[in-house]
Design a protein that fits this description.
Number of strands: 6
Number of domains: 2
Helix content: 10-25%
Largest sheet: 2 strands, antiparallel
Order of helices and strands: EEEEEEH
Mean pLDDT: 75
Strand content: 25-35%
Number of helices: 1
Shape: elongated
Length: 126
């Protein structure tokens, strides 16, 4: 609701106009005697919540493969059953602490319950 009040007489302010707008207020300002109001009335659905799983709660991972280098023999030759490879470093991403912490989305039931609570608190007129 936008209410225009005449305060030229401080002892007796008068309501000149009342306008009911859809949505909620984003910003407003007076410019050259006019009040400009910006509202938002779109329905924004929040993304599922991200849950942090600390490293201690993470399930154990498979042991990394063995990368044994061939052992040279006395004559200088060696048997190489498979190529000796170095394991690739795990790629990092912004927010990855590198300590085994994992992130998962909340499950569908929790997400739907959170949306229902949010909708009930915002959609019901007060």
């Amino acid at each position: 609701i936008v209410t225009v009040i005449d305060v030229s007489n401080v002892a007796a302010p008068a309501i000149l106009e009342t306008t009911r707008l859809e949505g909620w207020l984003v910003d407003s300002r007076a410019i050259e005697g006019r009040v400009l109001v910006v509202t938002q009335d779109s329905f924004d659905i929040p993304a599922p919540a991200i849950i942090t799983i600390p490293p201690s709660d993470a399930p154990p991972t498979d042991e990394p493969p063995s990368f044994e280098l061939p052992t040279p023999t006395v004559d200088g030759s060696s048997e190489v059953p498979t190529p000796a490879l170095m394991p690739a470093a795990r790629p990092g991403w912004i927010g990855d602490p590198g300590d085994g912490t994992r992130y998962v989305y909340e499950d569908e039931a929790a997400y739907r319950a959170r949306l229902e609570r949010t909708w009930a608190s915002t959609a019901v007129p007060r």
